[in-house]
């Protein structure tokens, strides 16, 4: 059994894939199993994966028809042989000691999850800045209040090791729909149900920022996938905890995360679409989430229409 199985979902990632795979080849923890799931790529990604696997026996390549990042990660989970699981995206980079530092931190407690707070956003111009992921130092977390910041601060799945037997034991898999909040489902459920979580400030995860990615794409006011992500997360946590008191505690934490997600999404919409989105949010959450109306909404809508008119005659070029 490997110490860590790394699952790398890949779809048309040729631009950055070599850099990602090279960072995994350089890991100081030798006893790892790297499962690259090609999700129906149509560029050179498959060839890059095969070349790497031919060169390094720790790499395995699984090829499947396109089904989304959640389905690719799930296939990786089913194929994993490691004691712990790690999910690394095909455009991100990790420090050479990343897996060794996180795995060594599992001793002696063997927690269900290990989380590193050392996550840097990695921008195209080379800038790196620290990202808040709810980790303030080295600690062992067990109660909902202690674990809550790992949900309310971020939905990131990639800065963690998950004990494989724990994930299989609770029957958890990734959300398979397409949503800007898809990672939040797995993170919420895993954090809520983990008996113990260890936080550390070791290892470095470089989370690449790409303007063309799904999370940076122009937002749509009719996107209802975010509501489904949270609906399913609530149902999973409520059923798995089997405790009305615990379910109630997590309901508050999950709602806080959803409030943040929906509010941020709301402000990235075109100003004329925001009022309808606020009404949709109240309706689809049963009044649980209410997004406050911004004070400058009228001015923002007027500016939007002026810019749109200027853009139509070539006198204004939007930055996105």
Spatial strand order of the main sheet = 3-2-1-4-10-6-11-9
The main sheet comes to: 8 strands, mixed
Cα-based radius of gyration, to the nearest Å:
21 Å
Beta-strand share of residues: 15-25%
> Which term fits the overall shape?
globular
Number of H/I helices: 12
Cα distance spanning the termini: 47 Å
In short:
By secondary structure, the chain is α/β, with parallel strands linked by helices. Helix content is 42%, strand content 17%. Helix 9 (225-241) runs antiparallel to helix 10.
SSE topology sketch:
Elements: E1 4-10, H1 14-25, E2 32-39, H2 45-55, E3 59-64, H3 69-79, E4 84-87, E5 93-94, H4 98-104, E6 113-116, E7 119-122, E8 128-130, E9 139-141, H5 144-147, H6 149-152, E10 160-163, H7 164-170, H8 182-193, E11 197-200, E12 205-208, H9 225-241, H10 244-267, H11 274-284, H12 297-312
Parallel strand pairs: 1-2, 1-4, 2-3, 6-11, 7-12
Antiparallel strand pairs: 4-10, 5-12, 6-10, 7-8, 9-11
Task: Describe what you observe in this structure.
With 320 residues, the protein is an alpha/beta fold. It has 12 helices and 12 strands. It has helices at 14-25, 45-55, 69-79, 98-104, 144-147, 149-152, 164-170, 182-193, 225-241, 244-267, 274-284, 297-312, and strands at 4-10, 32-39, 59-64, 84-87, 93-94, 113-116, 119-122, 128-130, 139-141, 160-163, 197-200, 205-208. Strands 3-2-1-4-10-6-11-9 form an 8-stranded mixed sheet, sandwiched between helices. Helix 1 (14-25) packs parallel to helix 2 (45-55), helix 8 packs parallel to helix 9 and helix 9 runs antiparallel to helix 10. The longest helix has 24 residues, at 244-267. It is globular. The mean pLDDT is 92.
């Amino acid at each position: 059994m490997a110490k860590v199985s790394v699952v790398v979902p890949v779809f048309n990632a040729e631009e950055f894939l070599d850099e990602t795979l090279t960072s995994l080849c350089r890991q100081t923890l030798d006893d790892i199993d790297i499962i690259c799931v090609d999700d129906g790529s149509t560029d050179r990604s498959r060839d890059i994966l095969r070349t790497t696997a031919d060169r390094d026996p720790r790499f395995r390549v699984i090829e499947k028809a396109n089904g989304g990042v959640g389905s690719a990660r799930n296939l990786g989970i089913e194929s994993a042989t490691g004691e712990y699981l790690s999910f690394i995206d095909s455009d991100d980079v990790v420090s050479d000691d990343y897996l060794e530092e996180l795995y060594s931190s599992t001793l002696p407690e063997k927690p269900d999850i290990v989380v590193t707070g050392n996550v840097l956003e990695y921008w195209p111009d080379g800038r790196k800045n620290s990202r808040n992921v709810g980790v303030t130092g080295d600690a062992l977390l067990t109660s909902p209040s202690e674990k809550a910041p790992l949900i309310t601060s971020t939905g990131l799945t990639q800065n963690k090791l998950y004990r494989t037997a724990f994930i299989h034991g609770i029957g958890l898999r990734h959300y398979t729909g397409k949503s800007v909040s898809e990672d939040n489902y797995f993170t919420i459920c895993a954090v809520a149900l983990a008996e113990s979580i260890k936080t550390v400030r070791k290892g470095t995860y470089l989370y690449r920022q790409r303007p063309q990615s799904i999370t940076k794409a122009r937002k749509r006011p009719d996107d209802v996938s975010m509501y489904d992500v949270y609906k399913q997360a609530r149902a999973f946590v409520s059923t798995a905890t089997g405790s009305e008191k615990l379910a109630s505690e997590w309901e508050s934490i999950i709602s806080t995360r959803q409030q943040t997600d929906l509010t941020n999404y709301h402000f990235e919409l075109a100003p004329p679409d925001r009022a309808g989105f606020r009404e949709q949010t109240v309706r689809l959450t049963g009044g649980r989430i209410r997004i406050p109306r911004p004070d400058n909404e009228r001015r923002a809508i007027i500016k939007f229409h002026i810019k749109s008119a200027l853009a139509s005659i070539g006198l204004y070029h939007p930055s996105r």
